[in-house]
Design the sequence.
């Protein structure tokens, strides 16, 4: 199975700040990567697919980048509603696997 | 509007089975895959498998073969997941998710399964 490693596991940032979350795959996943946001007690919501494509309705302050085994999610101008956990997911190979998550809190 | 409505929380005894449902609306059920996912409290998300709404064709994560069985009822646009021989390790929230291009574009609200005697 492809292992997905996210960093950091938790993150504290101020409103208006730019935040970056990293995701490393155990092998090349050829941009087969998605990012999800999960607020407490809620189901995850798709943010980014194909490593850098914004899902419908997702604010443009979210962006994804990367290639090969290294990917990142950037949140520009952090808003209070962005407090959540974020997960990466690879879909290059079965079984589809997720990173361990990054919990984002306000400073 | 795409909606996935999952069945309510379950409290089941060890060794028993449980069947979860995911009733859909707002899209053509037979044209898409439905995935099921597991999330234990405060932990990672695991993909269990998926099923094609058109013909019931399935794909499973090897880890969940023998544990989960996925089925669909096209007439009611509903997906089901049977979980068998339940243990405490099966206590988790289970999600159904509409799968497009291998990503989980829309999710149900989740069903909490608690395995306890």
Sequence:
């Amino acid at each position: 199975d492809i292992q997905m490693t996210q960093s950091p596991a938790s993150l504290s940032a101020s409103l208006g700040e730019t935040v970056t979350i990293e995701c490393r795959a155990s092998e090349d996943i050829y941009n087969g990567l998605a990012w999800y946001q999960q607020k407490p007690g809620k189901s995850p919501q798709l943010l980014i697919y194909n490593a850098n494509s914004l899902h419908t309705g997702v604010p443009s302050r979210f962006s994804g980048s990367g290639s090969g085994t290294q990917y990142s999610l950037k949140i520009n101008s952090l808003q209070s509603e962005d407090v959540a956990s974020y997960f990466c997911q690879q879909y290059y190979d079965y079984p589809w696997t997720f990173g361990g998550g990054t919990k984002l809190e306000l400073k | 509007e795409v909606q996935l409505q999952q069945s309510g929380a379950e409290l089941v005894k060890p060794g028993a089975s449980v069947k979860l449902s995911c009733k859909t609306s707002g899209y053509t059920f037979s044209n898409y895959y439905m995935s099921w996912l597991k999330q234990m409290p405060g932990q990672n998300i695991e993909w269990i498998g998926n099923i094609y709404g058109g013909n019931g064709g399935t794909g499973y994560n090897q880890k969940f073969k023998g544990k989960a069985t996925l089925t669909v009822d096209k007439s009611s646009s509903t997906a089901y997941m049977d979980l068998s021989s339940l243990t405490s390790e099966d206590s988790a929230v289970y999600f159904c998710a509409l799968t497009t291009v291998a990503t989980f574009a829309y999710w149900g609200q989740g069903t909490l399964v608690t395995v306890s005697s």
About this structure: The CA atoms of residues 19 and 73 of chain B lie 13 Å apart. DSSP finds no helices and eleven strands in chain B. Chain B touches chain A through 19 residues (CB under 8 Å). The longest strand of chain B covers residues 92-100.
